[in-house]
Amino acid sequence: MNPIDRWIELETRRQFFGTSAKGLGTVALASLLGRPTTAQATAAIGAGHFPARVKRVIWLFMAGAPSQLDTFDYKPDLVDWYDRDLPESVRQGQRLTTMTASQPRFPIAPSLFEFERHGECGKYISELLPKTGSMADKLAFVHTMWTEAINHDPAITYIQTGNQIPGRPSLGAWISYGLGSMNADLPEFVVMNCEPRGQALYSRLWGSGFLPSKHAGVAFRAQGDPVLYLSNPGGVSGETRRLMLDRLQSMNQRIYQQVGDPETQTRIAQYEMAFRMQSSVPDLIDVTEEPRHVLELYGDDVHTPGTFARNCLLARRMAERDVRFVQIFHRGWDHHGELPTNIRRQTKEVDQPAWALISDLKQRGLLHDTLVVWGGEFGRTVYSQGTLEKTNYGRDHHPKCYSMWLAGGGIAGGVTHGQTDEFSYNVVRDPVHIRDLNATILHLLGIDHARFTVKHRGLDERLTGVQAEARVVQEILA
Amino acid sequence: MYNVFTATWMLLAASAFARADDGRSSIAFNRDIRPLLTDNCFACHGPDSAGRQADLRLDHRESAIESGAVIPGSSDESEMIARVMSRDPDFMMPPPDSHKKLEPHQQELLRDWIDAGAQWEEHWAFIMPRKAPLPQPPGIDDWANNPIDHFVMEKLHELGLQPNRPADRYTLARRAALDLTGLPPVPALVEELIEGSRDSYSRYIDSLLALPQAGEHRARFWLDAARYGDTHGMHVDNYREIWPYRDWVIGAFNANMPFDQFVVEQLAGDLLPRPTLDQRIATGFSRCNITTSEGGAILEELNVRYMVDRVETTATVFLGLTAGCAVCHDHKYDPISQNEFYQLGAFFNNTTQPAMDGNQRDTPPVVTLPKTEFEDEWEQLMEECQSLRRELRQWKSGAANAWAIREREHEHVIGSDNLALWMPLTKGADDSMVLPEGAHWATDHPAGRRGIRYGGDSELSIEFPTLRSDAPLTVSFWFRTPDRVVGTTLFNQTVTTTKDKTVDGESVKSEETVGWKIESGVQNSLTFELFDDSGEHIKALLPDNEALTPRSWQHVCVRYSGGQSQSSVTISVNGTAVSLRHGTDALVNGAPLASAPLKIASHLPTAGLSDIRIYRRWINDQEVQLLAEDHLVRSLLDSDDAWDELDARQQARFGRYYDEVIDENYRERAAKLSDTQRRRDFIYARSTTSLVMQDRESAPRAWVLQRGEYDQRRDEVGPDVPRVLPPIGENDPRNRLGLARWLVRPGHPLTARVTVNRLWQSVFGVGLVRTSEDFGVMGDRPSHPELLDWLAVEFVEKGWDVQHILKLITTSAMYQQSGTVTADQLAADPDNRLFTRGSRIRLAAEVLRDQALSVSGLLRDDVGGPSVRPYQPAGLWKVVAIVGSNTNHFKQDSGDGLYRRSLYTFWKRTSPPPSMAAFNAPTREQCTVRRERTNTPLQALVLMNDPQFVEAARHLAERALQRHEDDGARAAWIFSTVLSRPANEAGADVAELLAAAGEFRDIFQHDADSARALVRTGDSVPDVSLDETELAAWTMVANILMNRDDFVSK
Fold first, then answer.
1. A344 touching B, CB under 8 A?
2. Under 8 Å between Cβ of A186 and A284
3. Which end of chain B has the least Cβ crowding within 10 Å, N or C?
4. What is the pLDDT of residue B27?
5. Is residue B447 located within the same domain as residue B313?
6. Nearest to A255, CA basis, from B195, B981, B853
7. Average pLDDT of the residues in A472-478
8. Average per-residue pLDDT in chain A?
9. Could you tell me if residue B364 is inside a domain?
10. Residues B18-38: pLDDT tens digits?
11. 297-356 of B, contacting A, C-beta below 8 A
């Protein structure tokens, strides 16, 4: 029996013997997903292994893999390499996807975009991301993220669950399992997907794997009910539902008196919680009360549900309500061809809202204990996939290095960590594996990734892999 | 009544006796010692050879003794004890950095065990089960119905506990029906049971087991284990057709197929002598794993993943072992070495299945189930093809003799039959040709100065016959992909007309195209499209990420057999057929296509074309290859070498040329074979297919992979089974058939145990071994080991009879107990692992939905067929799917498809049915033999608000209103229909329902719109003769009942 279940069982029994059935109901009532509110008492590792730097995480996931060469990893000398072949000494026979493996040559495509220095740190950032640039001093950049996977499905499954093969819990599920909930009315792990575009997503990316399914991310939706089946059917008002519930609960109490199964009491509590969610969730997503100047911060898109801007605003509202882990998937970064056109659209959609989110959190005093992460599943090649033109090129998948940024609690602003070679092809200094990133996120939450294990099928499973090494990237921590 | 004091005293007494008696002999290795060694020692001193420290292993007696760690009879001299007792951080065991620790009483236990002689035992699950004599605890004769009760009572007696009184017959009837059929009972059967004699319960169970719904219910559990789904599961996650396998499983359970046969047919039906179609369909078990076709994926990596999944699934489902750990290294705890893992892998590593699933429904190998009207023709075609293929394969080629006179053969044109158009576009041949503006002769063709490079738009328009969508077409050409990043149009024979259409009562103009065209995209993709005259259209796509090579010449051949389907199109590049993506299963009618000129190269800036040949027939693969190598054939014909001096490739090339172009007899036979293509494609595209297993002819083998990495091959291994288990039968083949027979051979300790444990779990929610997926040393020990063994032996003795075991369980006195529970019982047996009461657990996802449909009268009872798409909130698929996936857009069924049993619900694995996922249904991405059972508010939302459940409530209300005028009678009828028991003893509940009906009536009387909205929920139309207010009120009453705790539980 795992510690949570044991605690619940003991607690249930104590209540059972110590108080009336009503007392037991109160305990169960306090739970959202089958769990009492006092997070530390129910969570697998309670308050964590050491003091946490942040209480919550907002991960802005750029699905499809943004080009590091056109955003953060500035390589001015590549201009001289236009349409020249990538030297074999750089590629070192490294495996390529079968998409470009048969290309007769690998012509280098320098970024079409200007880079400018920003902030006191003097960080060079692409003209595509002016707002991001304006907050460079708040961000820590990692240029040397890397992974083994070279295709989207395995790669995104890998960074999200620590394994390329489906079946493991996602990062958010691990955190929910480890630290429990900070609020009684909302899930601790929420996922928001933006407009469908480009590469696929999979429900396993926020799944609970072998952890109890209550730790799975709850996918908030822009269309229809924000949480599945939240709304009453047509013609059923809150009042009608309340009447129905009162009768139901009274009947279930009677069943409990007759049968004595504590599960019945839990069920009674869960129905009450469902009823509460019917108002707490709509309240969460209702942005009509947001002042104009806040909406303006996020840009025009914020008026359209399902956009990255709206989701960033919702992420802030969730942070205010102590949702522990929020992940926004922004899709459409898989630019094998026509990269300049596509990346202009993509960056335009994310640049201002990401900046707005950081600013808004900061203004509300939430940034110091919130971690914000921006990035995708791998990087892209310096050489063009398909045909290279002066103003047009594509980039294939590149797992050996790519860029991300982090901001918020515990993060050292203005730091750039890791160095890639002149082609942004290999890591020259300070590689950061995706496992290291996950270890770092856990670390900021007060969790030692190496000690955060769950027995499953005879193995001490952990987010960072059963056997693999992972290290906390101390260099980007404040 | 259970007495806490007595029980505690007895426990203490039992252990005190054990100590006083001998203090030593009572130590059982498997119970007392093995867990200590497993938890604290095996990680470094266990089966894993790579992780082993100091060359010491404690899982083997000899090794432990030889090393001096253990000296039987003398704990003081045993190093293990010295280390365990030590506090020296450099010496002590377990070492401090392992974070493991042995408590003093555990240390003592080890000491006592060594002093008593240090006996080792094999892990319990690896020892053959035997039937122990039936225990005879006091009072057993008054209680027991069958041997199960003896073992259960024995344990209760040991602990001073008493069983519950029997459940009332209505509760029992409902419980048994839900457990055996997954549905509430048919009222007629319940009546028989209630009114019947003493043995009527046994007959009731027989009746339930005989229902076709029983096989469906059983199949539901199996499909979790088999990881059955209706999509490929990765990346594009397109539709996959394998539902005939699901139906095979249902049929097998309904026929009560002996479980050993069930195992053999699923793992190796194809390898049985003269396998039947059903036996081949059964092998779909090993095809249910998730697959991908993601562009750029590395094939060997995928093949390894598929193999690993098959081994893990087989080991989990049949052996109850977690083999997965041994992918990377020897198992840390269980005696499965890394070598042995890959030996198991070899059984599955011999498939003809391609690594990339092609995003098609029918990734080969498949079996074809033609529509009834085509069955005979299909069989004839198959025979004809087989005999023609055999003939051609055995053809004695005249190529060697003809080589001497090859110069005469120069004039032959490759594939001259039915050649409708040939434009060489080669300088020399077309010297007279006036090039379009901006165009020039190409200089970079591999065959020399061939082809035209185009400038801007320079369309060539020629008269061309009107083609038909049911006639074959081959288009062969050399294509130079453009220098610029542009899309191009190569061929186009279409007519577009504007028609007036009426949409939603409004007249709109719509464009309709008929004809065919070939285009290339900006990233050098290639498409062939054909539009029939009814608005249907097929499209074959060579996608961006598998596209043509940029800025290069290549030979492309597009073939359409005339089979009126997407799958009738093949695209070959440089002579080799490539796999096409994003295929739909669209079909077109058989009719004339466009009467229009054929436009060639209408938009080809900076691209090139050469050697265009269009045939009104389906040319064969060899001919395609010859067209791609035409220039090489020509230069070969100019060779001065003697036949013997040619290399094998050259000989083959000339052989192809001779057979296909010169030898008329061969050509006649080959043409005959090609002529069958159209009908084969036509019938195939209109057939059901099912994924199956098929082996290559070579012997199975695999490679041990360093750290499990696909490109780190170590030793080659052949197929074999782990040494800790009995060997594979001497007379059995070393392939999947041998493996399957081994699993069910007499003397196998695991398969029967694991299976009866899962049957037990299917009834009680938890098995006798809680970890039903892990019978290894890290798994839980059985709660009732002797009962488990008795059942396992009984199962095999009775011919692997699944229904026999289910009947034993459900007719036992233990099963028939009341589910009520007191505080004392809860304290003594919180999880009911001792069976102090009847099982009362929350119903599974499928059962909840099926039950609601059943009591409402909406449930369809037809068995089998394609999966259906009942209600699900809009947009769920779209929000995750890749554009172009054929499961991107969820199209809800209407009518019957909404009301089928849940095991027929379409299972998209990257977005499983949401109402079932809320109730712990797995994603089916991997084998699952045990579901969780949680209790969450999201579940309450489903049961209250899902249109499926709301509509069911309304339908139930309709029936009540149609049957009864009186409110009391209505309430009683709904109550008894929902809960399968009469309402006469539920006065308070009925009164509550009546009060509720009154309250709801008040609301809806003042709000007709709401009443109307509520009763319109769902697709079915409410009975118009009923008053909407009344129906709405009673719908809410039914909604209450269908959320009751005792409806949601069994």
1. no
2. yes
3. N
4. 83
5. no
6. B981
7. 96
8. 88
9. yes
10. 333 343 347 888 888 888 888
11. 297-298, 305, 322, 324-325, 328, 331-334
Beta-carbon separation of B996 and A244 below 8 A: yes
- The single-letter DSSP state of residue B428 is T
In a domain, B651, yes or no: no
Collapsing DSSP states into helix, strand and coil, what is residue A109? coil
| B286: amino acid identity, one letter | S
Claim to verify: residue B468 and residue B548 sit in the same structural domain: yes
Q: Is residue A127 within 8 Å of A348, Cβ to Cβ?
A: no
Assess whether B361 and B420 both reside in one domain: no
- Is B589's Cβ below 8 Å from some Cβ in A? no
Is A45 in the B-facing interface, judged by CB distances under 8 Å?
A: no
Integer Cα distance of A386 and B523 in angstroms: 6
Last residue of a domain, one of B580, B595, B620: B620
**What ipTM did this prediction achieve?**
0.87
Domain final position from B620, B644, B677? B620
Residues B364, B421 within the same domain = no
Q: Is the pLDDT of residue B392 over 60?
A: yes
- Which chain A residues contact residue B1003 at CB under 8 A? 237, 239-240, 243
* Strands B598-603 and B488-503, sheet pairing: antiparallel
Residue B970 tokens read as 């209505």
Please indicate, yes or no, whether residues B364 and B422 belong to a single structural domain of this protein.
Answer: no
**How far is it, in rounded angstroms, from Cα B1034 to Cα B1041?**
11
On whether both B352 and B452 belong to a single domain, the answer is no
* Separation between Cα atoms, residue B716 and residue B686, nearest integer Å: 43
Q: What is the third-level CATH fold of A46-231+289-476?
A: Alkaline Phosphatase, subunit A (3.40.720)
Q: How many domains does chain B have?
A: 4
* Number of other CB atoms surrounding residue B225 within 10 Å: 20
- CA atoms of A256 and A233, how far apart (whole Å): 28
Residue of chain A whose Cα is closest to the Cα of B1000:
A240
Identify whether residues B327 and B436 lie together within a single domain.
Answer: no
**Domain ranges, residue B41:** 4-122
Average pLDDT score over residue span B659-668: 92
Contact yes or no for A104 and B552 at CB 8 A: yes
Residue B405, pLDDT score: 81
* Out of A102, A219, A336, closest to residue B544 by CB: A336
Of A98-107, A160-169, B238-247, give the lowest mean pLDDT range.
A98-107
The answer to whether residue B581 scores a pLDDT higher than 70 is no
Per-residue pLDDT reduced to its tens digit, B188-216? 999 999 988 878 999 999 999 999 999 99
Would residue B479 count as lying in a domain? Answer: yes
- What would the two tokens of residue B432 be? 């007279």
Q: Which residues, 6 or more positions from A22, have their beta carbon under 8 angstroms from its beta carbon?
A: none
Q: What are phi and psi of B476, to 5 degrees?
A: -120, 135
Alpha carbons A123 and A126: distance in angstroms, whole number: 10
* For B525, nearest residue in chain A (alpha carbons): A386
pLDDT at A28 over 70: no
Domain ranges of chain A: 46-231+289-476
Task: Tell whether B840 lies on the interface with A, counting CB pairs under 8 A.
Answer: yes
Q: Is residue B163 part of a domain?
A: no
Q: Which residues from chain A sit within 8 angstroms of residue B328, using beta carbons?
A: 467
Q: Are A417 and A473 in contact (CB under 8 A)?
A: yes
Has residue A9 got a pLDDT over 70?
A: no
**What are A210-269's pLDDT values in tens digits?**
888 889 999 999 888 999 999 999 999 999 999 999 999 999 999 999 999 999 999 999
Contact A330, A60 (CB under 8 A): yes
Contact A243 B992 (CB under 8 A): no
Interface test with A, best of B579, B916, B926, B945 (most A CBs within 10 A): B945
Q: What tokens does B138 get?
A: 């006091």
Whether residues B475 and B612 fall in one domain: yes
Q: What is the pTM of this model?
A: 0.87
Residue B282's CB: how many other CB atoms inside 10 A?
32
Position B792 pLDDT exceeds 50? yes
